[in-house]
Structure prediction request, 433 residues.
Amino acid sequence: MSYPLSFSLYISAKIIKKVLDGRSLTKILSKLDKTIRPNIQALTFHAMRHLGWADFVANQLVSRYPNNLFKCLLLMSLTLLKKEKTEINTYSLIRPMYDIHTIVNESVKATQYHFMLKAYKSLLNANLRKFLNNHNIFLAYKTNLKALWNHQIWWIELLKTVYPMYWKDILISANDFPPLTLRVNERQISRDKVLKKFSQENIECMSIGKAGIIVKKPKPVRELPGFDFGWWSVQDIGAQIAAPLLNIKNGMRVLDACAAPGGKATHLLELADVDLFCVDIEENRLEYIKKNVDRLELNSKTVFLKTADVSKLNSWWDGKFFDAVLADVPCTGSGIVRRHPDIRWLRSADDLKRIAIQQELILNNLWKVVAPGGNLLYVTCSIFPEEGEYQILNFLRNHKDVICLDSPGQILPIRNNLFSDGFFYALLYKKIC
Prediction:
């Protein structure tokens, strides 16, 4: 079913309002009908990547917004009308391709779908045309950090402080197109055979890492050969580092804490025959692990799923130690902004402090379940030191039975490393006393 652009703009404006109210864009999009979701995702992702700029411009156009939904429709429309090319957005996603006059006309038509918009049809039209006719007067946005870099000020200032050489690259790469990266299930098939099959289907790709493949022109995963046969999983190359770092062996008792949706869990099962205990606080997300284990034709009999808060040991731990623990802890997600562009607007400096406290609690409790001589791999998809380096330095100060082994540490999502999102890794060995 085909929907007019005006309706898509209206739905996108409603979604932007929900995000600005604190809702996750991923969760909102997951509830949309599949026939409209791709277009809405393209529009809203584009808007999130240019929202700081649009907010600055909109505030120059309108002294007082009639309501928040009107503001969000105006913001959505402005991001589509943004046409200036600067060194900052040279590498950004190209905006969804619509003629400028079409954008204006369809944005105005979008007001018909809600009573809070209908009365302000003329106001929207006037402001969009004012922007187009006086584009140069809005170049003052370059003096506004939020508008220039499309991130919150606290986020920008923190990056400037901790990464004085890389902060610009990090912010620029946040608008880069994320690659579609696959991890070959070598229990089912070799990477060479997958590459050959893709080549036969005229799918351009390249190998990366130990088992990775980058598809050069991303497409729906179900259209790629081998999905239903369990030949591969979708996983960022930075995330593919995790399971091999633990160096697990057949027969081990392994814990994947905060396990859902299971990309790292299935990787562990591909590497060795282990008893894998997967714990996550959300029961419905654990179902993804079961589905992926079945699709990849892995040994489900050695997988044990438990819904629990890993920081509360009494709710899930049976007292038996684990040979290896994967602690992929909750974090701000600051390293995966290009895949989830709403994160930059959802997080606050207080969130960073709160989450860091939660991480410390989880890490300290999980250390108790590691067997002497065992390893714990601490992982976050964050680029903030409070969630990575500082967290581990504090842990090492407070524990005498730990040795920090060689691991990648902080991986930054910068242009020289376009294939990876931002991650932090620390591999901890528990001494045998």
Q: What stands out?
A: The chain has two domains: 5-149, 243-430.
